Amino acid sequence: GGGAYGAAKAGGAFDLVRFVQQPQVLARIVSAVFALIVFACLVGDGYMSQPEDPRLFCIFNHNEDACRYGIGIGVLAFLACIFFFMVDVYFPQISNTTDRKYLVLADLGFSGVWTFLWFIGFCFLTNQWSWARAEEVYIGADSARAAITFSFFSIFSWGLLLTFAY
Is 48 helix (H, G, I), strand (E, B) or coil? Predict the structure, then answer.
């Protein structure tokens, strides 16, 4: 094989087309897009106010933690995708086996934790949405449903990243 963590294959010229066609790169791009959609929906339409009360509240059953959780894991997932995308770019140039091992284990650990956090996020957002009163949510309902839907899809995209890291 390719040595420990592919270290024997280190070096060579960078081929963009071949790089983008790698399954883990495609899964990472999809995961970043899903995370972007979740946190953009929650930041854009996740908060609203009543005409008689100008204070903003989260459309997920007035539970601020639901909006904060979705935004938090979405932003961190997006930033992690960017970081690990850059790791994917430079990974073939790293010949030190120890460095490669730590990067692979970091990807494995982060992907595992984020798969779990997306599952928790999906359950939490779905539960809070089921308790939200329809008459209070008249603008951000589609964004709330999109955040829930892409939280669900993110479970599988991060699970796929976990599988590729393994």
Answer: strand
Quickly tell me which residue has 């951000």 as its tokens.
140
Assess contact for 85 and 32: CB atoms under 8 A: yes
**Residue that has been written with the tokens 């007035």 in this structure:** 62
How far, in Å, CA of 147 to CA of 40, rounded?
9
Average pLDDT, the chain: 90
Between CA 91 and CA 131 the distance in angstroms is: 46
Tokens of 27: 């899964």
Tokens of 46: 């996740």
Q: How much is the average pLDDT of 10-29?
A: 83
Q: How confident is the model at residue 126 (pLDDT cuts 50, 70, 90)?
A: very high
Give the Cα separation of 134 and 85 in Å (integer).
40
Q: How far apart are CA 153 and CA 34, in angstroms?
A: 7
Sign of CA dihedral 35, 105, 83, 162: negative
Q: Given a cut of 60, is residue 121 above it in pLDDT?
A: yes
pTM: 0.87
Burial (CB < 10 A; 0-12, 13-18, 19+), residue 57, is middle
φ and ψ at residue 80, rounded to 5 degrees = -65, -40
pLDDT of 11 strictly over 90: no
